[in-house]
Amino acid sequence: MTEPGRRVTYMDLPRQFADGEVVRRVAEEFSRCRFVLGPQVAEFESRFARLCGAAHAVGLNSGTDALFLALKALGAGAGDEVITVPNSFVATAGAIVMAGATPVFVDVNAEYLMDPAGLEDAITPRTRAIIPVHLTGNPADMDAVGAVASRHRLAVIEDAAQAVGASIGSRRVGSIGEAGAFSLFPLKNLGVAGDGGMLTTNSAAVADRVRLLRHHGLRNRDEVEVFGYNSRLDTLQAIVGDAVLAGVEQVAETRIRHAQLYDRALAPLAPHVIVPPRRAGVRQVFHTYVVQVEARDRLMPFLESRGVETKIHYPIPIHLQKAAESLGYKRGSFPVCEAQTGRILSLPVHEYLTDDDLEYVVAQLMEFYPR
Ligand SMILES: Cc1ncc(COP(=O)(O)O)c(C=O)c1O
C-alpha cells in the first residue's frame, strides 16, 4: 500500500503553536519586559512541581544544567565517579564531566534501562552518585537502584529528560530520587520554544542550593553566597512551558494510546520487529516508541521512500564515542547496549498522528517483512 505524496513526520512542532494562543501570551510580556526571573517562572515551577509530585522545582536553562547543578548541589565533583548508562543522550555523561567527575557506565536491560544487576560491581570508594535514565519515557527500576544506592550511601539523580509525567505506581518520576532533571527542549513531551530545563527535588536544601547556583550565587540583589553560574529559565520560556504543561497529560495519554495501537498491530511481525517491553504498574509516556528491527539499514530508506520518517536514538553509544576514549571502554564493554544499538528504531508516535497515520506506518512494515 503505497500512497504517493503521503508523509508521516516524526514530529509536528508547528501544530503545537498553531492556534496562536502561546504567541499571544508571549507577546503580552513585551509590554512589561520582565524577561529574567519574571513572576511566570515561579508560577511555572510550582505547577511543574505539582505535576511531578515533588516538593520543589527550579527552572533552568537546559536539562543538561539540571543534571549538572543536581550533581553540584549534591556535592559530586573532582575525583568522584558517577554511574550511569551508555545508551543515553550524550548530555547525561557530559553533565558528569562538566561537574568534574568521571562517568562510569553499567549495561542496560531489555527495556533500555539501567540494569541494577550490574550496579554493585561498578561501585568503588570514589562513587558518589547514580544517574538512572528514564529513557524513551519509561521509568528505570528505581526500587532496585535505590536499594543499592542506600546500601552504599549514594545519591540518586533521575535523568527524567524524556519522561515528564511517567510514574511507577503512584510515584511520578522526578519525585523518587534526591533530584530529577527534566529537559524542556522543543522535541520533548513538554517542550518550550528553545532551550529550557527543570530540576525537581523533595529537599528544600537542594532546591535552595540550585536556586543560588543558577543565579550567580546571589542570595539577594547584592550578596553573593557562593560562586555560581548563569542558568536561569527565561520568563518567555516559562510562559510557553506553562501553556504546554496544561496539555501534557493529554499528550501522554495520546502517545500511550498510539503505542498500544502499534503494540497490537506489530506483534505478529515478531521476531522481525520487537515492540517495547512493558512492566506492570508503570506509566510509560512514550517520548519515543522504540522497536528493534531486522535489516534496519534497508528498512529506514524503505520507510523514507514511503513517506515515513524514523530516527535512531542513539546510533553510537556514549562509551564508543571519540569523546569517551579516555574512559577506557571498548567495543564489547556493554554487550546488551551494543546489540540494541544495531537494531533500535524510533517510529513516529507524536500526539498529532491519526489512527490512519499509524495504520499506514504498520502497513509499510507489514509489506517490508513478508510473512
Ligand atoms: C536523556 C537525556 N538527558 C539529558 C538531556 C539534555 O537535555 P537538554 O537538551 O535540555 O540539555 C536530554 C535531551 O536532550 C536527554 O534526552
CATH superfamily of the largest domain: Type I PLP-dependent aspartate aminotransferase-like (Major domain)
Strand percent estimate: 5-15%
What would CATH call the architecture of the largest domain?
A: 3-Layer(aba) Sandwich
Number of β-strand runs:
13
- According to CATH, the fold-level topology of the largest domain is Aspartate Aminotransferase, domain 2
Percent range of helical residues: 25-40%
Shape: globular
The CATH class of the largest domain is Alpha Beta
Give the strand line-up of the largest sheet: 1-9-8-5-4-2-3
Identify low-pLDDT runs.
none
> Given the structure, what is the number of helices?
13
Computed Rg: 21 Å
Bound molecules: pyridoxal-5'-phosphate
Structural class: alpha/beta
* End-to-end Cα distance: 16 Å
- Overall domain count: 2
Describe the protein in words.
The protein has 371 residues and is α/β, with parallel strands linked by helices. It has two domains: 14-245, Type I PLP-dependent aspartate aminotransferase-like (Major domain) (Aspartate Aminotransferase, domain 2, 3-Layer(aba) Sandwich); 248-368, Aspartate Aminotransferase, domain 1 (Alpha-Beta Complex), CATH 3.90.1150.10. The chain contains 13 helices and 13 strands. It has helices at residues 13-16, 21-29, 39-52, 63-73, 91-98, 119-122, 142-151, 204-214, 235-245, 248-266, 296-305, 335-341, 355-368; strands at residues 56-60, 81-84, 102-105, 127-130, 155-159, 167-168, 171-172, 179-183, 197-201, 273-274, 282-283, 289-293, 344-347. Helix 5 (91-98) links the parallel strand 2 and strand 3 (102-105). Helix 4 packs across helix 5 and helix 4 (63-73) crosses helix 8 (204-214). It starts with 12 loop residues before the first helix and ends with a helix.
